[in-house]
Amino acid sequence: MGYKIVILDIDGTIVPHGKVISAATKQAISRLRERNIKVVVATGRAPYFSESVIQETGVDSMVFFNGSYAVHEGKVIYQNAIGKNLLEKMWLFSQDQNHPLTFLSGTSFSVTDLSHPFVVQAYQDETWRPELAPQGHWLDQDIYQLFLHCDTDEEKPYQLHIPELDFRRWTSIEAKSCDVNLSKSNKSVGVTKLLEALGIAPDEAVAFGDGLNDMEMLSLVGMGVAMGSAQDEVKRTANMVTLPAEEDGVYFGLKRLGLL
């Protein structure tokens, strides 16, 4: 198959958790470009959490917020914010449960409780620091994603109470936070918008990912590649499994596919 595009998740895929992009991964991206194969990023991160990766990889087309926001050659082509009624419903319910929320807009993020231990844990290894969220601040700005800070077994009441939203735990069940997105929004939605802008069919695309939020994307494309560190559920969704990010899994997978 003559693949025309490679779509890369960030955390756990091109960036090992808590580390940086390896020289081998950068070399792989450069070689793809030499072969006129487009390279894009599809991440659960916000744009401002992705600036260093964008600079290092030189990508100009990206999907952010797990599919709710897509950029093609530096121009926003798709955005799907969470409705104000759902934001209020989520905020009220989280207040009843004593769980903090992080609100992520296109340009900034803020949290309802800066001192909560789950919030401190969420940002302890990051250079980004949230501001305190004023009550009702989402009314005058678009919010594309939330972080719910709670234990895994405390998620289910939210899923039952607000089925319009989707809750996906960060990296592992030990994580004390999860992404919250519209239930009909995922990476495959944003990737489809990007592929349409590029004039590339899904079966002409390769995608690499490691998380539960990558499953729809891996199913969409012609060649879905799961990282070696991915959960079994993600691996079953993929067409191929490569090495973990710590072992240059993107480079290894692309070599195996004959793209390098």
* Assigned CATH superfamily of the largest domain: HAD superfamily/HAD-like
**At CATH's second level, what is the architecture of the largest domain?**
3-Layer(aba) Sandwich
Largest sheet properties:
8 strands, mixed
Number of domains: 2
Strand content: 15-25%
Rg, rounded, reads 18 Å
Kindly report the average pLDDT value.
93
Distance, first to last CA: 14 Å
Tell me how many strands there are: 14
Low-pLDDT segments, ≥5 res: none
- Report the CATH topology name of the largest domain: Rossmann fold
Find the structural class using helix and strand composition.
alpha/beta
Number of helices: 9
Please report the first level of CATH classification, the CATH class of the largest domain: Alpha Beta
* Relative helix content: 25-40%
Strand order of the largest sheet: 5-4-3-2-1-12-13-14
The helix-strand sequence is EHEHEEEHEEHEEHEEHEHEHEH
Q: Could you please describe the fold and organization of this structure?
A:
With about 260 residues, the protein is of the alpha/beta class. Helix 1 runs parallel beside helix 9. It contains 9 helices and 14 strands. The strands form 2 sheets. An 8-stranded mixed beta sheet has the order 5-4-3-2-1-12-13-14. It has a 6-stranded mixed beta sheet with strand order 8-7-6-9-11-10. The two termini are about 15 Å apart. The protein has helices at about 25-35, 50-55, 85-95, 115-125, 155-160, 185-200, 215-220, 230-235, 250-255, and strands spanning about 5-10, 40, 60-65, 70, 75-80, 100-105, 110, 130, 145-150, 165-170, 175-180, 205-210, 225, 240. Helix 7 (about 215-220) links the parallel strand 12 and strand 13. It has 2 domains: about 5-80 and about 185-255, 3-Layer(aba) Sandwich (Rossmann fold), CATH 3.40.50.1000; about 85-180, 2-Layer Sandwich (Hypothetical Protein, Haloacid Dehalogenase-like Hydrolase, Chain: A, domain 2), CATH 3.30.1240.10. The model has no long low-confidence stretch (mean pLDDT about 95). It is about 30% helix and about 25% strand. It is globular and about 55 Å long.
